[in-house]
Design a protein that fits this description.
Layout: H1 3-12, E1 17-21, H2 27-36, E2 40-44, H3 48-55, H4 66-74, E3 78-80, E4 91-94, H5 109-118, E5 127-130, H6 138-149, E6 159-162, E7 181-185, H7 188-198, E8 205-207, H8 211-241, H9 246-253, H10 277-287, H11 293-319, E9 328-332, H12 347-357, E10 361-365, H13 389-393, E11 397-400, H14 409-415, E12 419-421, E13 432-434
Parallel strand pairs: 1-2, 1-4, 2-3, 4-5, 5-6, 7-8, 9-10, 9-11, 11-12, 12-13
Antiparallel strand pairs: 6-7
Helix pairs in contact: 8-10, 8-11, 11-12
Length: 435
């Protein structure tokens, strides 16, 4: 029996060991799902603090309760920062970040570093799956050559697939198991093995012809959202200049039963996908002589929105005889979208930075983020402010950046001097300014 036949047998019998590399917002839910369906899971992460918490049955992601971690531990899940244990796993699934560098170009260092760390311990008969969003060709051009340099040939003595993550934190209707799984293989054998593995944990598989097609699928999904959000954000600016409520317009347009999909404007884009992924395609497209003007324009509009909000704050204060410099400003909501604790690429953080740069004294309140998290480009030594009547009233301006359901909006409007509402959440009032 060949190595790949043995791998197929282990996958089908659910005796295969799954290794998940990167235990963040994508990797940890996936690890818990594989453990839930009865597969042995080893979680790998370079953050020793995360590893210790998980092995102690604790969680560092709000929506994942300690009880879920403890249930997985009882089923054999364990976390480690020892990459030599790669040899124990039959499937190696990479779920690490793919950010942009300072020039807004792809940074694959997390992928490359992970692959380089596990390869010395890789063996024949393993399946390697990349889930990190990236440019079309990454699996073939970055991962496959490194496997071959170790004597591992996809489709012959190992398997290589790309299957993009599709997590939607905070969505109560679609968990890991419910979201259809796109997957492409380096060879038909690789694809078949990848499907056999994932179908244990995911209800619906969506096979495509190649890893490049799977990589492009993920980018299209997120670029679709980026372009449409860019459009509605630009419409918001135009409507504001004309004295029109863009949210009323969107709601009215959404009554059309065909040909229109409502998107909501906001203070900019956040999260690990939509602000970043379009630039992975624009960068790769240049290799083919294509200038992706439409995609880049949407990105520029969305990227500018925190500046637009900062300008609206300055106008709101000016109308009340105040300058930004020296004003006390409270940003409501630090997470990039409502009802979650994820602050990655959050426009709220950039708004805070812009206002502080203009001399304001900034603070924030977020029931999901009690302490300002460590970030690469921003440093605020802050705790979430309590929203009591007296505390609300002491700020010169409130900025609603993320419209968490936990906020008491009536309380905010009663006691705030002025609120700049970037989400269209608040009722019209004399102390409320749309932005």
């Amino acid at each position: 029996m060949s190595n790949l036949q043995l791998l197929r047998q282990r996958i089908e019998s659910k005796t295969a060991v799954v290794g998940i590399y990167g235990l963040g917002y994508v990797g940890l839910p996936l690890a818990l799902r594989f453990a839930e369906v009865g597969l042995k899971v080893i979680g790998f992460d370079i953050d020793a603090a995360k590893v210790s918490k998980l092995n102690a049955g604790q969680s560092y992601i709000e929506r994942i309760t300690p009880n879920l971690i403890q249930q997985a531990r009882a089923r054999g899940f364990e976390a480690t920062d020892d990459f030599s244990r790669t040899t124990e796993a039959d499937a190696l699934i990479i779920c690490v970040p793919t950010p942009l560098d300072r020039h807004r170009e792809p940074d694959l260092s997390f992928i490359v570093n992970t692959v380089e760390a596990l390869l010395p311990h890789a063996r024949e008969g393993q399946l390697l799956s990349l889930e990190s969003t990236t440019w079309p060709g990454t699996t073939e051009e970055v991962l496959a050559p490194r496997l071959r340099a170790r004597g591992l040939e996809p489709g012959q003595n190992c398997a290589l697939v790309f299957s993009p993550e599709r997590e939607d934190p905070g969505n109560p209707h679609y968990g890991t198991k419910d979201i259809p799984k796109v997957i492409g293989g380096t060879t038909p054998t690789c694809l078949a093995l990848g499907q056999a593995l994932y179908q244990h944990a995911i209800q619906t598989m969506v096979p495509v012809s190649s890893t490049r097609a799977a990589e492009m699928t993920k980018l299209l999904e997120n670029i679709h959202r980026s372009v449409n959000i860019g459009l509605v954000n630009e419409m918001k600016i135009v409507a504001d200049k004309m004295g029109i409520n863009i949210h009323e317009v969107i709601d009215a347009a959404a009554t059309k039963p065909f040909g229109f999909v409502p998107y909501k404007p906001g203070p900019g884009l956040g999260g690990h996908c939509i602000p970043i992924d379009p630039y992975y395609l624009t960068w790769k497209a240049r290799e083919y002589g294509v200038n992706t003007r439409f995609i880049e324009l949407a990105g520029d509009i969305n990227h500018h929105m925190p500046n637009w909000v900062a300008g609206k704050v300055a106008d709101a204060l000016n109308d009340r005889g105040k300058a930004v410099k020296g004003s006390r400003i409270l940003v409501l909501g630090l997470a990039y979208k409502k009802n979650i604790d994820d602050t990655r690429e959050s426009p709220a953080v950039e708004i805070m930075d812009l206002l502080q740069g203009k001399g304001a004294e900034v603070a924030y309140s977020d029931p999901h983020v009690p302490t300002f998290p460590r970030k690469r480009d921003y440093a605020f030594d802050l705790q979430s402010e309590p929203l009591t009547p007296d505390n609300i009233a002491r700020f010169d301006c409130l900025v609603l950046a993320t419209d968490h359901d936990a906020f008491d909006y009536a309380l905010l409007q009663r006691h705030a001097r002025v609120i700049v509402d970037t989400r269209g959440r608040l009722a019209a009032a004399s102390n409320t300014v749309a932005a």
